[in-house]
Design goal:
The chain is an alpha+beta fold. It has helices spanning about 55-65, 65-80, 90-95, 105-110, and strands at about 10-15, 25-30, 40-45, 45-50. The strands form 2 sheets. Strands 1-2 form a two-stranded parallel ribbon. It has a two-stranded antiparallel ribbon with strand order 3-4. Helix 1 (about 55-65) packs antiparallel against helix 2 and helix 1 packs across helix 3. The longest helix has 12 residues, at about 65-80. The protein is globular. The model has no long low-confidence stretch (mean pLDDT about 85).
Length: about 110
């Protein structure tokens, strides 16, 4: 989603909490509950891949990455463009469901009064 300018050294793969984590080279496996929350499907060539939408990606960045990277991603997400308008309600709904307190960060960005 071009939410950060950092280049990850490995792919992050989410698997259901109830499954055993597979071992993959150059991959960081994360076992998660609520794996269907924010899940969407994209097509790359002939393959269909399940990924998380932008809002879930932002919430997960606060869960799994450092605060600086997560804040930068949030700032990029909040920049409105014609094709990608931020959905603050969805973002906060996901944050509440996943128990991530984004209110203070949204207040810092001037979203909430």
């Amino acid at each position: 989603y071009d939410l950060t300018d950092e280049i990850m050294r490995e792919f992050w793969i989410a698997v259901s909490h109830s499954t055993t984590s597979p071992i993959r080279e150059n991959a960081h496996i994360v076992r998660m509950r609520n794996i269907s929350l924010g899940q969407t499907t994209i097509k790359i060539g002939k393959q269909k891949l399940k990924i998380f939408d932008r809002e879930r990606t932002i919430v997960d960045s606060f869960r799994y990455l450092d605060k600086e990277t997560a804040l930068k991603a949030l700032q990029v997400y909040l920049k409105t463009s014609k094709e990608r308008k931020p959905d603050i309600d969805k973002l906060l709904k996901y944050a509440k469901k996943l128990r991530v307190d984004l209110l203070e960060y949204c207040e810092l960005q001037g979203l909430l009064v």
